[in-house]
Design brief:
Radius of gyration: 20 Å
Number of domains: 2
CATH topology of the largest domain: Ribosomal Protein S5, domain 2
Bound molecules: (3R)-3-hydroxy-3-methyl-5-(phosphonooxy)pentanoic acid
Shape: globular
Number of helices: 9
Largest sheet: 7 strands, mixed
Distance between the termini: 38 Å
Number of strands: 11
CATH architecture of the largest domain: 2-Layer Sandwich
Helix content: 40-55%
Oligomer: single chain
CATH class of the largest domain: Alpha Beta
Length: 321
């Protein structure tokens, strides 16, 4: 019989405003998407002591950790976790990873996998998970393998599972939700590598520093306005900032035909705002709706060919400690 030793999960995330500019030290607002999660389960496994296998059907991986390349993110995440644990020896283990998050879709699947694995494995080996700060730091280290130069927003929102106002190298600020926010996320179904999107922006930034700096400053201003809007429950102002943020993301060339099409569809169907989320190039977009329009916007996005449409609300309760 399978012996389950521990289990832990981590949510997906969406960047409401500020992606890409956040890499250049500007603020961003990110929210957890708690309904879509990665779950890591640790089981006793018939392999030698101190060895760990990993089973991740989503990426068709079934292997002993020591047979993965040294720089493989899952090998790194396991080895970094073991180095932080107090106990040094353990029986043979299997880590099973299950995810309802799209991979390469701008919803933080990589960070959620790392976070869930660190939590479950440390809980199994030491009897309690590592401190949240340590989990956040380790998840960030693994993000560097996926992305090269991550801002840290993904690991932070996913580890703390709170809406946050985030700025690189500064303590996170939790955001209070003044009034329920109705959101719909739709997937273009097109995979896009964050590292490529981020390096593309870097190349264009290096060629047009002054212009790109102005655009990042404009995004930062929108993020600050949006934070006020969220906290005071001014949904109309939030909508204006999100629409303008999408326009600026188009200008820095991270949107795509498929994203723009879904953004347009959502707005025509009554969304107050719509924008791409995450690195862009493909992946997901988000629509800001009202309780009345969320359903029709979802239907329109489905009819326009989105591969997955998902609606949810952000309420004040989610910001409680
Ligand atoms: O596409 P995602 O979920 O990996 O989001 C990346 C967000 C960026 O701002 C584009 C990069 C970063 O490190 O913040």
């Amino acid at each position: 019989m399978t012996e389950f030793l521990s289990t832990a999960s981590a949510p997906g995330k969406a960047i409401l405003l500020g992606e890409h500019a956040v890499v250049y030290g500007k603020p961003a607002i990110a929210i957890p998407v708690s309904q879509l999660r990665v779950e890591a389960t640790i089981e006793a496994f018939r392999c030698p002591d101190n060895e760990i296998w990993i089973d991740s059907p989503t990426i068709r991986l079934y292997k002993n950790i020591k047979d993965l390349p040294y720089e493989h993110p899952l090998r790194e995440v396991v080895e970094m976790t073991l180095a932080e644990c107090k106990n040094r020896s353990f029986p043979g283990l299997m880590i099973r990873i299950n995810s309802s998050l799209p991979i390469g879709g701008g919803m933080g699947s990589g960070a959620a996998v790392s976070c869930a694995v660190i939590r479950a494995l440390s809980k199994c080996i030491d009897g309690q998970p590592l401190a949240t700060e340590t989990i956040n730091r380790l998840t960030f280290e693994v993000e560097k393998i996926y992305h090269g130069n991550p801002s840290g927003v993904d690991n932070t929102v996913i580890t703390y599972e709170q809406p946050i106002y985030f700025r690189r190298n500064t303590p996170l600020v939790k955001i209070k939700i003044g009034k329920t926010i109705h959101l719909v996320i739709a997937d273009t179904g097109i995979n896009s590598a964050t590292s490529l999107m981020v390096s593309g922006v870097r190349k264009r930034f290096d060629q047009n520093k002054e212009i790109y700096q102005q655009k990042f400053d404009a995004i930062a201003k929108l993020v600050d306005e949006a934070r006020e809007a969220i906290e005071s429950g001014n949904i109309q102002l939030l909508a204006e900032t999100m629409n303008e943020n999408h326009r600026l993301l188009q200008e820095i060339e991270v949107s795509s035909f498929a994203l723009d099409r879904l953004v347009k569809t959502a707005r025509s169907a009554g969304a107050l705002a719509a924008k791409l989320i995450g690195a862009g190039g493909g992946g997901n977009m988000i629509a800001l709706c009202t309780g009345e329009t969320a359903k029709s916007v979802s239907q329109a996005l489905n009819a326009a060919g989105a591969v997955r449409v998902f609606s949810f609300t952000l309420t004040g309760e989610q910001t409680e400690e």
